[in-house]
Design goal:
Helix content is 28%, strand content 14%. It has helices spanning 27-35, 49-58, 62-65, 81-87, 149-162, 186-189, 210-218, 226-260, 294-297, 322-331, 345-348, 391-399, 447-463; strands spanning 2-7, 37-43, 91-95, 112-114, 169-174, 267-272, 298-304, 312-319, 359-363, 407-411, 415-419, 426-429. The radius of gyration is 22 Å and the shape is globular.
């Protein structure tokens, strides 16, 4: 069995056609779902790139080894799926961004690891003194399509498939789009008509975590009048959908190559992302390390495997790091470390999921770990440059550390519960309120649900608090029977 991991960055599930968006230009993703299995409720273990990927490749929750930051990647003493495959004889080809492995981990985890291309985004749409500058909205990408970073990385993958590669292999394509800045090649940048967009989730809702209002303040979005703000947020979401359409085009090219080379019958293709994006909803942009709404945690997971059931939909929750357990099982490799991830191989054959399962997401930093925060002048290149669009993010974390405090969230089939020890907690009835507009935490009508979820969260934290190595050290002294 060969594997292809096609991984856009920051793609939320609801912005894909087969997940219900009426305007999403995603015919190739939709076709892949019709040929395989679509997991409707796949949730990530962290809302930021690096820690989410660390969980995905280890089968561990972020708290097991403290992978909750951009600065702490998987090191050689830690397990990772790519190394497991390489040690089992797989050829590992990697084209795209990192956000996963420390530099010392590459040699044992990949045969080829490259990032191709010369550019990805256009130029900022507004001057630095304009309140819209920090919105992440850029002009269209104007460079040659062949030099676009995502195009070039997928083309490298296509060239590899055409090279009659030695099997088995895994082709890992961690791309950039639709990660902000919001900017796409012109055809896709303007592909979605603003007038046709469904209404966005409103800004300024009551009983929300303070980072909602602080993000708008630090990014100067609160300086816009209501009409300007609404127009800007709708344009951002339209461009985000266009960026998703560009990713879909690249996936189609890769899938066509897989068919042309005769490798489709021996290759499992997995399409997924590491977390979502606000993309204008709630009046917000990008993501936040302690954010836990569905548009941040719910990502597409579409898998086509040889012999699998076509057109199957799994409605029950799964967690993104289940990719690790599933791939090991499909490859016939026994894990040599504790996995909290679960295999979904049975679901690929048409089985339902577990309706009692709860998906967990973690994030944020505590005040006792200042080295984790963004915006450190001694480390972060954008901390010193107010002309960088990431400057407000670091400044907010330094000025208001509790706005990015630690968080644990749990997502069942019916409810979401979010616990913040230094901030606002949240509870949503997703059947009555799927857009998470009404925070019910502390509401007496939902007291029983809240208590039940709090108790379950405590049980989960105790059961997953650490891992014990599989190997053992001798306890006796030399020459002693003890």
């Amino acid at each position: 069995m060969n594997f292809i991991f096609f991984m856009p960055d920051e793609l939320r599930a609801e912005s894909v056609g087969c997940y219900g968006h009426p305007l999403a230009p995603t015919p190739n993703i939709d076709a892949l779902a019709a040929q395989g299995t679509r997991f409707d409720q796949c949730h990530v273990q962290h809302s930021v790139c690096t820690p989410s990927r660390c969980s995905m490749m280890t089968g561990w929750y972020p708290h097991v080894r403290g992978h909750r930051t951009l600065w702490h990647l998987l090191r050689p003493d830690e397990p990772n799926l790519l190394r497991c495959l390489k040690q089992a004889g797989y050829q590992v080809q990697w084209f795209g961004k990192n956000d996963l492995l420390s530099q010392d981990s590459f040699a044992g985890s990949a045969d080829v690891a490259e990032r191709r291309g010369k550019g990805v985004f256009g130029k900022p749409a507004y001057p630095v003194d304009d309140p819209r500058f920090y919105s992440f909205l850029f002009d269209a990408y104007e460079g040659p399509l062949e030099e676009h970073g995502d195009y070039a990385c997928v083309q490298a993958g296509i060239d590899f498939l055409r090279s009659k590669p030695k099997e088995p292999f895994i082709l890992y394509l961690p791309l950039i789009f639709p990660h902000c800045p919001y900017s796409a090649p012109a055809h896709w940048h303007n592909a979605v008509d603003l007038e046709d967009l469904p209404p966005l989730r409103p800004a300024g809702l009551p009983n929300r975590p303070d980072f909602h209002s602080l993000i708008r303040r630090y990014r100067r979005l609160d300086e816009l009048d209501e009409g300007e703000h609404e127009a800007l947020m709708r344009k951002i979401q339209a461009v985000y959908l266009g960026m998703t359409g560009f990713i879909d085009e690249l996936l189609g090219r890769l899938l066509n190559t897989l068919e042309d080379t005769g490798l489709a019958d021996s290759t499992t293709v997995s399409f997924f992302s590491d977390h979502g994006d606000y993309a204008g909803d709630y009046g917000l942009v990008e993501k936040w390390p302690s954010a836990c709404e569905d548009i941040i945690t719910r990502v597409p997971l579409v898998v086509r495997t040889p012999g699998g059931k076509a057109g199957h939909v799994v409605d029950e929750p799964v967690e993104l790091f289940d990719i690790m357990a599933t791939t090991l099982e499909q490859a016939g490799i026994e894990a040599q470390h504790t996995l909290f991830a679960r295999s979904y191989t049975a679901q690929l054959q048409g089985a339902p999921g577990d309706p009692a399962r709860i998906a967990y997401t973690e994030g944020g930093y505590a005040r006792h770990e200042p080295h984790c925060f963004e915006g450190l002048p001694t480390r972060d290149f954008f901390a010193r440059d107010k002309a960088n669009i990431y400057y407000p993010k670091g400044a907010q974390q330094q000025d208001y550390p509790d706005s990015v405090g630690r968080v644990v969230a749990m997502r069942s089939t019916t409810h979401r519960f979010v616990y913040r020890p230094t901030g606002m907690c949240e509870l949503y009835d997703l059947q009555a309120d799927p857009q998470e507009l009404h925070n019910l935490y502390g509401d007496l009508s939902h007291r029983t649900v809240q208590q039940r979820m709090e108790s379950e969260m405590l049980r989960w934290l105790v059961q997953t608090s650490d891992v014990t190595p599989f190997d053992a050290d001798p306890r006796g002294l030399a020459g002693s029977p003890y």
